[in-house]
Amino acid sequence: VIPSSIRLEEFNRQVNPDKKRKELGIKSYEKVVGYVGRLDHQKGLVYLLEAAKRVIQNLPNVRFVVVGDGPQRNELEGKAKRLGIVKNIIFVGFRSNVSDFYPLFDITVLPSLYEGLPVVPMESMAYEKPVIATEIGGVPEVVINEETGLLVSPGDFRNLADAIIRLLQDNGLRREMGKKGKKLVEERYNNKQMVKTHRSLYEKLIRKIAFK
What is the pTM of this model? Predict the structure, then answer.
């Protein structure tokens, strides 16, 4: 299997998160939990909002930044209001410059109900940000539990909330997971490595055909 990859140079730029904090009205002392992706049922965002309420009850100085758009946006904004957490949730909509947001995050969350091998964890790890994700599809290949992030069961918002609280409260663990995540992406999921592996495969197949 040749896994998906990212162009590491696009997600390895020096970006000042203070500019993005100012743009979004996030205070310097507030922690940031980020999500990047479509706003639809597959992504499990209703469970992220349920988890957010539990997190905020324990850690009031946390903001959740949701980057992306989709058919579920109005429903999710309504749910945030009903949960009483609208002040802590920022829906920024679709942005083409998602790489500007990762440096802002303390944690990236991917609460999907099903996935293949998503690139969002790779992009987050390129910026040394740990990822909390659901244990589905190819996700555990990138989000290695207790190493590059934490895995939770899909739909389990209580477990998701506990994982978020745990990482937000442990700066050392976040830094350690972030470094391991970046190392993993550099070694296994960078675009140059994928091209090299594809080339090696083609050369192997060509040699087989040539010597038949």
Answer: 0.85
* 190: exposed, middle or buried (Cβ count in 10 Å: 0-12, 13-18, 19+): buried
Sign of the torsion formed by the C-alpha atoms of 169, 103, 159 and 186 = negative
Q: Which two tokens stand for residue 14?
A: 């020096």
Query: Quick one: tokens of 77?
Result: 């904004």
Going residue by residue through the chain, which has 212 residues, state the pLDDT in tens, using 9 for 90 and above: 655 655 666 666 667 888 889 999 999 999 999 999 999 999 999 999 999 999 999 999 999 999 999 999 999 999 999 999 999 999 999 998 888 899 999 999 999 999 988 889 989 998 999 999 999 998 998 899 999 999 999 999 999 999 999 999 999 999 999 999 999 888 876 656 666 665 766 767 777 787 66
Beta carbons of 67 and 104 less than 8 angstroms apart: no
Distance between CA atoms of residues 101 and 128, nearest Å: 13
